[in-house]
Amino acid sequence: MTPDGLAVRTGAPVAPLGRRGRRHVDVPDLVARARDGEARAVARLISLVEDASPLLREVAAALAPHTGRAQVLGLTGAPGVGKSTTTTALVRALRAAGRRVGVLAVDPSSPFSGGALLGDRVRMQDHAGDPGVFIRSMASRGHLGGLAWATPQALRVLDAAGCDVVLVETVGVGQSELEVASLADTTLVLVAPGMGDGIQAAKAGILEVADVFVVNKADRDGADETVRDLRYAQSLGGRHAGPGAWRPPVLRTVAARDEGVDRVLAEVGAHRRWLEASGEGARRRAERAAREIEAIALAGLRERMGEVRGSAALAALAGEVVAGETDPYRAADRLLASL
Amino acid sequence: MTPDGLAVRTGAPVAPLGRRGRRHVDVPDLVARARDGEARAVARLISLVEDASPLLREVAAALAPHTGRAQVLGLTGAPGVGKSTTTTALVRALRAAGRRVGVLAVDPSSPFSGGALLGDRVRMQDHAGDPGVFIRSMASRGHLGGLAWATPQALRVLDAAGCDVVLVETVGVGQSELEVASLADTTLVLVAPGMGDGIQAAKAGILEVADVFVVNKADRDGADETVRDLRYAQSLGGRHAGPGAWRPPVLRTVAARDEGVDRVLAEVGAHRRWLEASGEGARRRAERAAREIEAIALAGLRERMGEVRGSAALAALAGEVVAGETDPYRAADRLLASL
């Protein structure tokens, strides 16, 4: 393991590999080094999958046998609820328990990736030099389908790199909290007192995705009210009504002082056991994989649609149709087969 | 040939074949009968291609060797300029010259096909019992790509049925005049005096698609002004500027009295000779075939995209990905191959 355990890179965002020109990359070696916990190898693999490099498929194939072990925690909430602080506190607690941890900070409003954000620099100071933590900022703006595209691939890298837990943190804006929940085994929804979050949560459909509610900044005025609001909103929802169903706990934390964080992890553990016992965990993993395959298949079809327009083969086929040698349907079949 | 030369069917629109249940259809026999000029066979073939029947491909393949002979005339113009009357007069003149004629009346605002429109009934009376005329109304609303989808296939049916000329008539609303021009060898743009059409034509891009301008109702006040407006607008355009280029003539007709119609057909003939001599005719035919192939290929890809979502194969592949037996990219390849 290298002394710099952080996959964070500061400075300008990474250009897609294509623009830098091809360099020889030994994928099996890179995967072997990532599995040994080498941060640079992990960072490089994430860049390869995130930039949709020509090696993407080779990387995915090499990672596959080493995946399926990591527990994925989704963390979402409105700006200002203390997501970064909570992530830092959770990482600290997980490290204290000897777990290897990955963090993917997804910023749906940012076109930049690679860890140039202020938040990472702050966290970096906290975990600098710890070889058991990988932190990576990911942009989702500009990516087809936002989180859906690159994040699952980055998750696979961290999974194969031996992370016991991967935290996926995203700002709860627009659809991102639903997307993060679709990636996670367990979704933590953070709220803070005095922000009307209890009511907003119900509106935004956050109740449907939360496995654990965390009322952070619980030392502030209004914390009791926020907890009560959430429980009331929960009582109205039907999702967790059945016997044997998981009832999302509403917890209090002051993440800046590490208060309540162990309790959060205890509930995460309880949820994990419930996932396994109920079969819901297997169902979520299968659904996640299905969505991933579907997204890749659809992207492939869209790419072929782009190739159809203006393809060189088209002109030759058009000539055959004009001559009555073939019909447009057989020509279209041959066009698609040729792409 | 049957005594009823008209492909017009009145009454309710035809339900897609699928909803009527499959019946045995002998496609080669149908094509042979259509080539003999049997109106019912022509109508049936158009229905098969228009309804995207399962036999569509077989029909297209059977038609291919017999296509490429018909001259396609596009006819477009704003409502009220006298398109139906002009079509009727053109058909009369073409029949007098012994030509076999097909008419496709495309109504972009109508969801109904098959010839149930008033316009067809009127024309039907004019050409009833003439085995050398096929008339068909086609809806384009609701079809993917409007005219782009079914009309070229219907054109092929009429072409294979031995039509010397096929008139494609559409209301010049929205993009339809551009679409009809993309289907036609020669595009006639109809205007009428006192409708400000000269100026509107320039705006709507009609100048770009017209091969022949027809100022119909030329006995009305303002006809001279309309002709002058069109010539002025033409002088501003750059398309027909080069040497050897076709300069669209501006003709006058009173279609209701058959006045000027022979002159229109003479110019259509001159345009056809120019098309062949200049190579523009071959270019247009090739471009038309390419667009047709492209539309079919894109529709096929869109169909596959629909199949990806919710496919049964997806669940099995997801299981393999979860187990680490394959990666999502290989799974996506296999999913697409299986559809």
From TrEMBL, chains A, B:
Entry-linked SUPFAM superfamilies: P-loop containing nucleoside triphosphate hydrolases
Entry's Gene Ontology molecular function annotations: GTP binding; GTPase activity; kinase activity
Source superkingdom: Bacteria
InterPro entries xref list: AAA+_ATPase, GTPase/Isobutyryl-CoA_mutase, GTPase_ArgK, P-loop_NTPase
Keyword Transferase: yes
Keyword terms, alphabetized: Chaperone, GTP-binding, Hydrolase, Kinase, Nucleotide-binding, Transferase
Record-linked SMART domains: AAA (SM00382)
Keyword set includes Transferase: yes
Family: Belongs to the SIMIBI class G3E GTPase family. ArgK/MeaB subfamily.
PANTHER family for this protein: LAO_AO TRANSPORT SYSTEM ATPASE (PTHR43087:SF1), LYSINE/ARGININE/ORNITHINE TRANSPORT SYSTEM KINASE (PTHR43087)
Protein name, as recorded: LAO/AO transport system kinase
Native species: Geodermatophilus telluris
Phylogenetic classification of the source organism: Bacteria, Bacillati, Actinomycetota, Actinomycetes, Geodermatophilales
